[in-house]
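hi! just following up on the protien thing from before. the input was this:
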Amino acid sequence: MFKTIYRIIKLKLRDRDFNVIGSVLLNLKVVSFYEMISVFPILIFGKIEMDIKGKIQIAKPLNFGMIQLGRRAILEQGRRNSVGQLQIAKDSVLRIMRNAGNVVVCPGFSIFVKRNACIELTPPIYIGYDCRIISAKNIIIGENFSSGWNLLLMDNDGHYIKDLINGVVKNNKGDIKIGNNVWLANNVTILKSSIIPNGSIIASHSLINRAMTSTNSIYAGSPARCIKENVCRVWNNEDELDAFFCGK
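and the predicted 3d structure came back as:
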């Protein structure tokens, strides 16, 4: 417990955006009091609007700060005052799968889980500034997921549309499934019934609205198509590569 309190005080001194009260309130909704004071798994930074009627499920064992909401990225330290929104409706769930790293969501996020819907995340996860994740059915994101700013994930159309000729109203919902080791650039939109295979790279300003098929490929366009196969993002030694290519 004392180690956790020390970490909280140290974090607050280092990052004035750390929202202690919001973090305590959300932890108390998700874990037991003992788990909160001994581990403190959820950290909130900046302002947040919360409406939690459903469940947040976190796989154990718990670690300090394994979920970080509103955490500023290194390159945008000056950005402040973005209000996060977290809404989980009755009979819905936000599920964090096995403990294999952190879930980090940058400021300006809006995460809405509508009734009888589910968002499932497998860490490590990094989601950039001003994301919108809206689930009315199922959104599943695999491990080692990373996105740029202005991401939109939406597994529903928001409204129903009726065909005036035959009177048919089609289902406006469809699962979104994102595989492992997927990298999304900035301003990417993922709509209902989309499947993104393992190792995919989605280019800036692309729109995904159906099932993609090739793993380890680059998809680009609106709607997106495969433009290059047999590629992957370099995840673990970018600093060395920057130094190697400097001046070339």
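The chain is about 15% helix and 30% strand.
The mean pLDDT is 92.
cheers
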